[in-house]
Amino acid sequence: MIKFLSLSLFLMLTYALSFSQTYTDKEMRSKPLWIEMMNDTNANFYETVKAFDQYWEKREHPIEEEELIGEKKKSERQSKIARLFARNRRLNDSQHLAFEYKKFGWWRINNDGWAKPDGTLYTPEERKVMFQKERGAAK
């Protein structure tokens, strides 16, 4: 009976681990895997940040709204032709990821304090319990 339980536990663990996704550094650099990982509640926080950093390591970061507003003031003084050329230089292949880039920044700030040492994030239920404990200790 013990052998059967041990074997079944081993098989369940092996099955569960086979679904945990691990990516190579090459994959992280070539594909925006961090988007998928960010939206996965079971993804490792530190692996997601690593995937983001590696993807953007040799790419031009998307233009933020604040930068566009500042450039608009400058470009009002430029001629139409100069503005056309400047716009074409600004837009690149990574510009379509601008929304996800900004979303990741927000995700990273909000989850940074909720990462366990192993990289998993606390669930909302665990966060609630922690908050209630802290609140009870403060009284």
Number of strands: 0
Categorize the overall geometry.
flat
Structural class: mainly alpha
Task: State the low-pLDDT regions, or none.
Answer: 13-20
> Helical residue percent?
55-70%
- How many helices does DSSP assign? 8
Largest sheet: none
Radius of gyration: 22 Å
If you average the pLDDT, what whole number results? 78
Distance between the termini: 50 Å
- How much of the residues is beta strand, in percent? under 5%
Structure description:
The protein is 68% helix and 0% strand. It contains 8 helices and no strands. The protein has helices at 2-19, 25-30, 33-39, 45-56, 65-75, 80-90, 98-111, 124-138. The longest helix has 18 residues, at 2-19.
Helix-strand layout with pairing:
Elements lengths: L1 H18 L5 H6 L2 H7 L5 H12 L8 H11 L4 H11 L7 H14 L12 H15 L1
Helix pairs in contact: 3-4
Summarize the structure.
By secondary structure, the chain is an all-alpha fold. The protein has helices at about 1-20, 25-30, 35-40, 45-55, 65-75, 80-90, 100-110, 125-139.
List keywords for this structure.
single chain; 139 residues; mainly alpha; 8 helices
